[in-house]
Amino acid sequence: MAAVAIHQFAQCITCHAWSPDQSMVAFCPNNHEVHIYKLFGEKWERVHVLQKHDQIVSGIDWSVRSNKIVTVSHDRNSYVWNQEASEWVPTLVILRLNRAALCVQWCPKENKFAVGSGAKTVCICYYEKENNWWVSKLIRKKHNSSVTSVAWHPNNILLATTSTDGKCRVFSTFIKGVDSRESGASSSSNLKFGEQIAQLDLSFTWAFGVRWSPSGNTLAYAGHNSMIYFIEDVGSSPSAQNVALRDLPLRDILFVSEKLVIGVGFDCNPMVFTADETGLWSFVKFLDEKKIAPSSSKYGSQFSEAFGKLYGQSKPAINSDTVESSRPRGGAHENCISCIVPLRKPGDTIVRRFSTSGLDGKVVIWELDGHH
């Protein structure tokens, strides 16, 4: 496993997404714009700048089948962008939010997308052809704080959320006229919109980065207390495991396969978790071997560097004794990794390549070896 490409696109990146053929990448350089770069030979060139938001863009998702880009922002708005000739044309989404939109994800069938917000609500958005706009149905009064991430179940009906109230929840998003009764599992499609299937109280801290396994049998999310949680058979008879990290907290996770998860976060280095034959999850290793080396540094520098990562400093803080930093720099990422995205084509169940982006302004492409 190794980083196969490192691209310095900006000083800081809040989120990114790839085009269906993976020839273009869209990202927010920590402002109100979305920049789209295209690969020409071996050089990336900026081909589009999407300008419609007036505050930081906090979420981007690029649909694989329909080639649509959805963006959300702290300005409480969302737009769906369609490519017409050489231009990207925005369509307004009626979110009805009074706080920032924080995250967004297309559902597997791409007829809906979910938006998490600081208004303690989740917007399930769908297209109204007669009005040529996207409208939303809101899941209200379920969260006690901001919704930090959303994840669609493979059946296109169930949605998992994490929140800064420390809880992970699973809801039904069945919308009459948009979803068919056969579109998901029979038990899921018979539930009403917004009905809560499960509430997981495993973390006592902020929760981030929720994801389903490819089969939808396992749910995982991260806590700000340096824990990652794995739940099997959500809804019927759930069983939960937690893995405590000795390092800094995770911000996002990705199921590579049913038994392999990659976690990224404040340690600036992707972490690998696997499940054994009995289903027991454990931490295996860091992906970026460059950054794993013996260090003779003192505790003071380890402490100050950890604080530097937590508070977004791009360079490690050095104490008055000018000792070496706790871990050698020069790895793929130099600051907190905030986003991990699979690089796969429709129908793929196992991820061989994925990308990460973070507060150092880099997008890094990773490739897994054949053992996974």
From TrEMBL:
GO MF terms held by the record: actin filament binding
Q: Where are the WD repeats?
A: 50-91, 140-172
SMART domains per record: WD40
InterPro entries the record matches:
ARPC1, WD40/YVTN_repeat-like_dom_sf, WD40_repeat_dom_sf, WD40_rpt
Enumerate the Gene Ontology biological process terms.
Arp2/3 complex-mediated actin nucleation
Q: Which GO terms describe its cellular component?
A: Arp2/3 protein complex
Q: Which residues cross the membrane?
A: none
Keywords (alphabetical) are: Actin-binding, Cytoplasm, Cytoskeleton, Repeat, WD repeat
User: What's its job?
Assistant: Functions as component of the Arp2/3 complex which is involved in regulation of actin polymerization and together with an activating nucleation-promoting factor (NPF) mediates the formation of branched actin networks.
Q: What is this protein called?
A: Actin-related protein 2/3 complex subunit
Source organism per entry reads Musa acuminata subsp. malaccensis (Wild banana)
